[in-house]
Design brief:
With about 240 residues, the protein is an alpha+beta fold. The protein is built from 7 helices and 5 strands. It is about 35% helix and about 15% strand. Strands 1-2-3-4-5 form a 5-stranded mixed sheet, sandwiched between helices.
Length: about 240
Amino acid sequence: MTPTIAWLLLLVAACSVGALAYVLLERRKKMEPELPREWSLTPRPVFNAHERRVHRQLREALPQQVVLAKLPLVRFCQPTDPAQVHFWFDLLGATNVSFAVCSPNGRVLAAIDLDEGRAPTRRSTLIKQAVLAACGIRYVRYAAEHTPSVPELQLLVPAAAAQWPSPAAAVMHSGLRAAGTVGVEVVAPRTRPGAADGTGAWAESTPYRDSTFGRDSVISGFSHSLPSVLPERGGEVVETPPTRH
């Protein structure tokens, strides 16, 4: 093969690669929708009236905690198996809780949902209950017509209730199992294996780059001890037997 023919073949190959890259790029552009020329959007409040009342009650009941709104589940949990990152992200990515009560260092202590006139699907409820129970997070759901009181919300975080006692908290705590409020459901968390010593095989989420699925969200040294009594407000309480060592 003469040098001229070799150069011609190389030139043809380079042109073919360039043409293929151009075709693929154009196809990708056609698949992606064009950005709008006019952004017909307007701001809206994060809270409705009921959410605003509950948020105000949470701030008053738990002044030392951080209250976050509309927090996705993937922000405070991550898979133990790196190979299942895609599966869990697709399953949980669109699910959030109305409020999350967090410690100052970012650990979620309790999750609250508000039913705003429409019942959640059974699948969504099962997903939330399973995720929060696996992570050892207290979960309560209130009906749209019910605004929880300050003492009631303090019982979600027993340590905070002890630090900031309310006059009615002791009375409410002693009478929790005597009376209930319709539309409130409490799910007792269960301790996740390895949680007590902080040993979890957490994986870096390369495809999604979400900090909750990455190593920077691994928190060690947390205690996952559960209170002996959880609020029972007319809903179903899932009791979990204590972990034996």
